[in-house]
Amino acid sequence: MFANLLKTASAAAIATVATAHMSFAVDLEFYFPVAVGGAAADTIEQLTAEYSEANPDVNITAIYAGSYSDAGQKALTAARGGNPPQLSVLLSTQMFALIDEDVIVPFDDYLSDEEKADWIGGFYPSFMENSQTGGNTYGIPFQRSTPVLYWNKEAFKAAGLDPETAPANWDEMVEMGKALTLKDDSGNVTQWGVRIPSAGFPYWLFQGLSTPAGAILANSDGNKVNFNDPKVVEALEYLVALSKEHGVMQPGSIEWGPTPKAFFEGETAMMWTTTGNLTNVRNNAPFDFGVAMLPAKERRGAPTGGGNFYLFKDSTDEQKDAAVDFVQWITAPEQAATWSIATGYIAPRAEAWETEKMKAYTADFPPALVARDQLEFAVAELSTFENGKVTQAFNDALAAAIAGEMSAKEALDEAQAKAERILKPYQ
Amino acid sequence: METARRQWIYAWLMLSPAMVLLITFTHYPAVQTIVNSFYSTPRGRRKAVWIGLDNYQTLLLDDVFWKVLANNFWYAVWTIPLSIILSLAMALWVNDKLRGRGFLRMAYFTPTVLPLIAVANIWLFFYTPGFGLIDQIRGLFGLPEQNWMGSPDTALYSMIAVAVWKEAGFFMIFYLAALQTIPPSLREAADIEGASRWYYFRRVLFPLLMPTTLFVSINAVINSFRLVDHIFVMTEGGPNNASSLLLFYIYEVAFDYWDTAYAATLTVVMIAVLILLAIGQFFLFDRRVHYK
C-alpha cells in the first residue's frame, strides 16, 4: 500500500518535472550582419518573430551586429569570452578561421542521414563550396550573392549599341566600353564604359575575371593558393589594361560605396557589383537597365559571396537542436523567397524558386533570375586558413598592379610567396 | 614613530583609488602586451607558446610594417607643423577686432566638434572622382578628374589634409586663449618703439606663446599616431597600404587577422616610439619655453 503510494507520488513528481521541462523555453541568440542596408534587418526581424510565434518553446533573439567584419569580431570576441551566440550569420570565407579558433561545430551531428541527403543536398552546389570542408558541413548558405553586370540601356542606345545585349566576353566588353566612353570638348571623360570597384577588397570582383580565365585561387582544404598561375596573371593584366590601354575604366582604385550612384548619375554605363544591390538599383535607377552574367573568357565564371549560418560550439544540445530547426525553417522555400525578394540575395535552394511568390516576382522582374542562372558557373569565394592575412597579401598585389607600381606578374609572385609563408603551418 | 606610520597609511589610502584604476587599465595591460609579444597567438586548437623574439623577427621582415612606419613618419611630418601654423594664423586673425568675429571663430572650431567619422564622410564626398566637390570645381577650369583616394601617390596626402582640417580648429582655441592673456601694453610699447608687426610677433608674441606651442605640439605628435578613424571610412589603408598608419595596421592585425601576439608586438613598438618622442620633446623644448 505504502509502496504503491510512493510509486504514484514519484510518478506524479516525474510528470511534473517533465511538464515543467516542456514549458522551459530554449533561449537562442542569433547575430546577423547587414552589408547592403535597406530591408535586410527588418526582414530578418519579421521572420524571427514569425518563427517565435509558431514555436512558443523557443525564445529567439535576433541581434543586429553591424557590418560583416563587425559581426565577425563580435561573435569571435564573445566566443573567446565564453559567451557566444548559439547561431550567427557570418561571412562564408570565415569558415576556416572559425574552425581554427575551435568555436563552431558542423551541422552534420544534429541532422539525420535523411536530412543530410535532402536538406544539405538541396542547396546550390556552388554555395556549398564555401560551406563544407573535410567532409563536414560547417555553414548553411543564407545571405548569399554573386556579382553581376548591370548596364544602362539608354546609354547603350545613345552609343549606337543594341540596348538589349550586354557584352558576352572580354573582347566585347572592351569594344562596347570604347563606344560607351564619352569625352567633353577638353578631352575629359564624362561617361566611363565600365566600373569594377576595387578599393578595400579587390579580390572578390577580380575572381569574376580569374575564374573565366580558368583559374581557381585556393584549394578546398584552405591551405594552398594559386596566386601566380599564368591565368591569374592574364586576368590581372586585362583588368589593368581596361584603364591603362583601352581607357574604358577610371584609373586607380575605385570605391565600392559610390558605385551605384555613379551608375545612376550616368558616370558609368556598365558596373560590376553584387546582386545584393538589385533592389536598390531597381528602385533608384532613373533609366531602363539590364542585368547580365559576367562576361566570359575561356568559360563563364564568377565567385559567390556573402554569409552563412554557423552553429557555435559553446551551447547545450537543446539549444543546438533548436538552432538547427530554426535554420531549416528560415531556409525553407516560403521564407527563403520572402528574404530573397526583399533583399536581392539569391534564394539558396532550387525549391524556393518554384514558390508562387517567387514565380510572380521573377515574372515581373526577370533580372532576378540572372544571378541564380550564373550559379551554375560560380566557384567558391577566396577563403583559406589565416584568411585575413592571405587575402590581404592578394589584395595588396592587385592594388599594386592597378596603381601601376608593379607588373601583374611581379605583384602576384610576391603575393604567392607571402601566402605560402603564412600557410606553411597548415600544410 | 606612531604618527609617521599613520601618515604612511594615509598616503596609501589617498593614492589607492587612482592607483587601482591606473594599474588595472594602464599598467597591467601594458605589461601584458609586452609579455604577449613573446608568445605565439593562441588559437582555439593551439595554446600560446613561448617563442622568444620570433614576433620581433617577423616584424623586421614585414614590409607592410616598414611601409606603415614610413607613412606614419610622413603623416607626422606634414600634420604637426601644418596644423600648428594654420591654427596660430587663424587665432591671430580672429583675435583682432573684426566684423563677424564670433561667426568666424565658430566656423574654425566646427571641424573639432564634428566626430572624425562624420568628417571622413564629408571628405569622402569632396574627394570622390567625377562628381565629388573637388572634381566639380576642377571641372569648371577644364581640369581632368583625379582619383585622390584611389592613387598611391595622393592617398596619404588626402588623409593628411583631413587630419589638418580637423585638428587646426582645436589648437586654435588654445592659441586664442593664450593670446587673450597677453597684456595689450606690450603691443603699445612695441608700437611706441617703432617695432614692425612681424618683429613684434617674432620677438614678443611668439616667445610668450611658447608654453602653448609646447602643449599643442605634444598633442599634435600624439594625434599623428592616434587619429586614424577617417582611414577606416575613406581608404581602409589602401591602395596597397599607401595610406595605412601604424595604429590602423595594429587594428587590422588584431581584429581582422586575429593575430593578437603580432599585434602586441606592433603595439610595443608604437609605445616605444611614443615614449621616445615625448622624452625628446620635453628635453628639447623645455629649455626654450619661458613660463611666467
Q: What does this protein structure show overall?
A:
- The complex is a heterodimer of chains A (427) and B (292).
- By secondary structure, chain A is α/β, with parallel strands linked by helices.
- Chain A has helices at residues 2-23, 40-54, 68-80, 95-100, 113-118, 125-128, 153-158, 170-180, 203-210, 230-244, 259-264, 278-284, 317-330, 333-343, 356-364, 368-374, 387-403, 408-423, and strands spanning 26-32, 58-64, 87-91, 104-105, 132-133, 136-137, 140-145, 147-152, 182-183, 189-195, 268-274, 289-292, 302-303, 305-312, 378-379.
- Chain A folds into 2 domains: 2-145 and 305-367, Periplasmic binding protein-like II (D-Maltodextrin-Binding Protein, domain 2); 147-304 and 381-426, Periplasmic binding protein-like II (D-Maltodextrin-Binding Protein, domain 2, 3-Layer(aba) Sandwich).
- In chain A, a hairpin with a 2-residue loop joins strand 5 and strand 6.
- The longest helix of chain A has 22 residues, at 2-23.
- The termini of chain A are far apart.
- Chain B has 292 residues and is mostly helical.
- The longest helix of chain B is centred in the first third of the chain and has 35 residues, at 2-36.
- The mean pLDDT of chain B is 88.
- Classes of the chains: A alpha/beta (427), B mainly alpha (292).
- At the A-B interface, helix 3 and helix 17 of A face helix 12 of B.
- Chain A: Belongs to the bacterial solute-binding protein 1 family.
- Chain A: It is found in: Periplasm.
- Chain A: Keywords: Signal.
- Chain A: Its main location: periplasm.
